[in-house]
Queue: 2 jobs
Job 1
Amino acid sequence: MSPLDHYGLDQHWLTEFEKLSRKTILARVVRVDRGEFDAITDSGIVRATGTGICTGDWVTLDSFRLVATLPRQTAIERASAGTTSDTQVLGANVDTVVVTVASDTALDLGRVERYITLAWGSGAVPVVAITKADSGSVNEELVLEAAPGVTVCSTSALSDGGIDSLTAHLHGTIALIGPSGSGKSTLGNALLGGSVFATGATRSADSKGRHTTAHRELVPTPSSGLVLLDTPGLRSVGVQGSEDAVASAFSDIDELAATCRFGDCAHEREPGCAVLAAVDAGELTERRLGNYRKLLRENAWATSRHDARARREKLREYKQISKSLRQKYAADGRTR
Ligand SMILES: Nc1nc2c(ncn2[C@@H]2O[C@H](COP(=O)(O)OP(=O)(O)OP(=O)(O)O)[C@@H](O)[C@H]2O)c(=O)[nH]1
Ligand SMILES: [Mg+2]
Ligand SMILES: [Zn+2]
């Protein structure tokens, strides 16, 4: 058995690899540093050079250099902070995204919805793991309302509680995402059955984490056939790229919207609005509707930023073409 088999190698990647040059070797990126990365190959972990890749990518290498990145099946992308339209890829080729919600901090449903939107947007399937069930309690009903259609499991890494039932909902490559201190690395270790990922105590005042995990790292489980991707806690989660992700994360509102009287109902004050009727009837909270609108606006803004960049690039290209045309005409003029 090749080490790659433990890192999620399957027929899909073999087929993709076979389409490419025979002179390269197949590898999966397990950790990225500046300009260099660790990758698992047939003969174990190697250090290679190359950029533009992310943990979880399947790549080809030649003499420890990146040659090609195989097309990603999924990618967890967040809008990066600041004014650029760049996105940051948090993990590639992830099958299940485990969103951690800690029992020892105040439940922030808006944040849960953000993480769920990010997860759906990646193409992977989200699962919510309520962590530290031994040291507090989270209203699971509220979490279920904020994550319709998503499995919610209550876990404790301390007492091993709920780990098996969570595992039953996981397959393939698993990314652990959630705020710092929410117990991602500890849960990862529980799934691995050992202390592989570093963990760190939270601040006693507010149970916030200290950003213990600094790297995204891929580690295979010894027996369950999973590959875990531990990630650093995120300070902000900007969503962008697809309205579909928002529609998936807010499938309840999406379904209601389909029954509004007007097809283009903005659910503001239109007559016959099924969304507003649900709020009136107490079936949908103002908070959730508000967050839905916010994420849609954010998405639209990110898309327009992206369009603006595309326009600038087109313009640059055009200028380049007209410059070379002018040079050509000038040269033609001289020869005539
Ligand atoms: N009681 C209890 N404590 C837990 C549990 N899971 C995690 N913790 C504690 O919570 C703290 C933070 O856990 P980490 O696993 O480091 O959190 P993290 O999400 O990886 O944090 P970052 O790496 O900073 O993003 C540590 O002190 C853990 O021991 C649990 O199930 N029960
Ligand atoms: Mg961690
Ligand atoms: Zn409506």
Job 2
Amino acid sequence: MGITVAVTGPTGEIGISAVTALENDPAVEQIWGMARRPFDPADHGWKKATYIEGDILDREAVEKLVEKADVVVHLAFIVMGSRAESERINLAGTRNVFEATVAAERPSRLVYTSSVAAYGYHSDNPVPLTEDVPTRGSKEHYYSAQKAACEAALVEATEGSDLEVYVLRPCIVAGPKAPALADAMPWAQLPGPVREATKLVPALKPLIPDPGIPLQLVHHDDVALAIAMCATTTAPAGAYNIAGTGEISLSDVVTAFGARPVRVPAVTAKIASAVLAYAPFVPSALEWLHVGRTSVVMDTTRAETVLGWHPAHTAAETLAELADSRYSTAVTRL
Ligand SMILES: NC(=O)c1ccc[n+]([C@@H]2O[C@H](COP(=O)([O-])OP(=O)(O)OC[C@H]3O[C@@H](n4cnc5c(N)ncnc54)[C@H](OP(=O)(O)O)[C@@H]3O)[C@@H](O)[C@H]2O)c1
């Protein structure tokens, strides 16, 4: 008899690959997935997974989901959204999942996908970041603040329980099935013919400033593997940083997606971030600019040596796969 895994957010960029990895794991017998929109597991060839429409804000729905499972994987989250809406769903919904899992009899393990953003963008943090660095978050970036708040809620909700708690902190996830990074580029919204024209006339390509902060990327299949491993491993519970091998630059990213990078001093990003932090009424989408003000490169030694996780893709390969799938643009700097 294998284990039963409940997954919140199985239809997202990470969820699809995570459920696929769980499907391929012989130790997993059954999977229950829950998110809000209609979805058919058969479209992905899944055999072990059953999908339930439900909202993590609905405590009863969450209780019904987690009570069926030996392991609960919590992925449901609003990543790109307004500060107000994401806060409403992410904090209350995540707390529901944590508390319901602790209260249910059957689950013995909880796997929560946090983020590098939980550490916050602090110039006094070490580079690279290790798992023992406190997850302080940065209040001026809603996503970072909420990820830190969720980690604090996790500690509070699970304190004194027997639950084995695995926390994954991935960097930006990308690849052909995780295109959010490409979609987030402002010029991705340009009409197709305009984008085509920029290929023929490079001078038309948007100029994007690069303050020189190194970036990490991880492939969706590698994150999915880490999640599936956490569901079944005998490695110790705790936090694990997750990132593909190597670093890339913002210049690599903008070049891959058809814009022109221009190097600017690192202090430019710090100034822009400081101005935004004190400006009133900043649109939530602009809060992501804080990410560029300091390095948040992580050390993944613990994931590799303790969990035994090894990414199959480098950051550069992940970027190239995404770029090929989205724009058929050759990435030459890899
Ligand atoms: N993508 C990244 O680069 C990245 C990096 C580090 C960490 N993470 C973390 O990994 C987790 C998964 O991210 P992702 O990229 O897969 O996000 P995503 O693509 O936006 O998917 C979010 C998932 O959550 C579900 N969901 C949202 N609100 C819900 C609600 N109220 N009730 C039930 N389900 C809900 C969505 O389905 P419905 O909308 O249909 O409900 C979807 O299945 C998140 O915690 C995220 O912060 C992501």
